[in-house]
Amino acid sequence: STDSVESCLDCLLKALIWKISGSGFAGNKCFKHQENQSYVGLFHQEKVNTFMRSPCVEAGLIPPLVQLLHSKDHEVLLQTGRALGNICYDSHEGRSAVDLAGGAQIVAGHIKSLSQNTDPDNGKLLTVFCGMLMNYSNDNDSLQAQLINMGVIPTLVKLLGLHSDNTALTEMCLIAFGNLAELESSKEQFASTNIAEELVRLFQRQAEHEKKEMIFEVLAPLAENDVIKLQLVEAGLVECLLDVVVHTVDGVREEDVAQLKTASDLMVLLLLGDESMQKLFEGGKGSVFQRVLSWVPSHNHQLQLAGALAIANFARNDGNCIHMVESGIVQKLLELLDRHVDEGNVTVQHAALSALRNLAIPVVNKAKMLSAGVSDTVLKFLPSEMPPVQFKLLGTLRMLIDTQADAADQLGTNGKLVERLVEWCEAKDHAGVMGESNRLLSALIRHSKSKDVVKTVIQGAGVKHLVVMATSEHMIMQNEALVALGLIAGLDLVGAEKDFVGAGLVQVLHKLLSDEMSAPEVKYNSMICAFFKDSSSLDLFFSHPPPEPLHKEVQGLAFIDVVSKLRSHENKTVSHQASLTEQRLTAQS
């Protein structure tokens, strides 16, 4: 029965533990090498059984096993390393016991002292010890951090270089790297070694898919570090990745598809580093940059995606953006988007819109991109129900119309666009979409300064959302909303009056002016908005008193007291506007 088997095993374990601990090893006495090898070999075999691990720990097996790591006998060390590795495998109790007994430190010391020895037998022992540390720390952040603090990373990197012909040891090092590289604290240690060169050299020698995948699994977490990104680029990883793409782009096997995705994703990741990106851009003339651009018109969706994301990453400074727009990249992106209006590949749509948004940031690019028909293409995705696409669509349009009055006027009088914006302003499940919708609604008014746009927004029920936007926790959004509301008041106060009252605009402005935490810009814009007259732009705002309902609210909340206090504000712009506003209020009262 199960009980009798476990009982027998328990007796066996206790006997073996007594044999090991009492055989003369404890206290640095002599012991019989042959016997200890046999006993530990049995543990190594028995530990494969999951249900045996906890009994081994509970029976006190770990301390005597760890003591055997001090042996000078190669076979004893080999069998002990295997036994401890098996005990640690997927066992919290086993790992804790080995940790308490100091086993990891001893093994790490052995690896360091043996790392220079390229003898085949030594390679076997190193492989076992590396495997033991891998099982010891796998999926355990605290134990991985412990190994990092012991300095195992530089040692393992040296192993990879000195023992590159030892397949088993190399694979064990890669698995260990994969475990440790997930910890952010490991990146600095990795960056101080020549890990980039060793991994690239190893990758270049591989022909098998599985081996390349193992290296990819290490490269991905390492490449999240900007210093290592640059090291990998300088070591020649990009050329390796491009070669993988060439050989797998037309492949139909699963492993080809997997390698293509991994290689192209890793390329995009390398471009997230400023230095690595700029090194590959080479003023827009780099061969890598040109190769990546050729991915955009590809028939392969994965390459289309990677190409668009790469452009978005290259477009992270004005110089690069200006060069790319001049070189015709916008047209490639528009053609790509047109191909995906009906196909509806969301990831490609999102990536292409991201690239266009970044390219539209420099002022000199906006008019060129508008002339190229970017806004018309972007509007084709207005029916999209995918929040990531909605978010990038909104951001792209907002960047395009910045300082572009005609474009803002044209888009701001597009009833379908305004209707969709108002709808998305209520997308509470998607804060990003909701925020961008509000910002674009405000931008259409601010950049057009058009009465027709204001009327369209009023008719589309957008005013209330701008009032809510004025209460945002983000100062930039508060100011954008307040300026837009001031323009609405100045251009069509009568048409907006009902919405102002319904949304509680006066109460919002009073709160912003009273709140000591409100930024000076917010207070200034609140006064401009509240009294519908800007002393520097008399032709823009109404000069006659506001409608009766609003006037009553202003009087009822004692605005004059709040404004009077602001006359002594430390910000001169605020205090000056407070003086002007107080005069206005006094004249109206």
UniProtKB/TrEMBL annotation:
Listed GO CC annotations: cytosol; endoplasmic reticulum; mitochondrion
Name of the protein in question: Rap1 GTPase-GDP dissociation stimulator 1
Superkingdom of source: Eukaryota
Any one GO molecular-function label of the UniProt entry: guanyl-nucleotide exchange factor activity
Pfam families: Arm (PF00514)
Keyword field: Cytoplasm, Endoplasmic reticulum, Mitochondrion
Keyword Secreted: no
ARM repeat positions: 60-102, 328-360
Organism: Hucho hucho
Compartments it resides in: Cytoplasm, Cytosol; Endoplasmic reticulum; Mitochondrion
Keyword Transcription regulation tagged: no
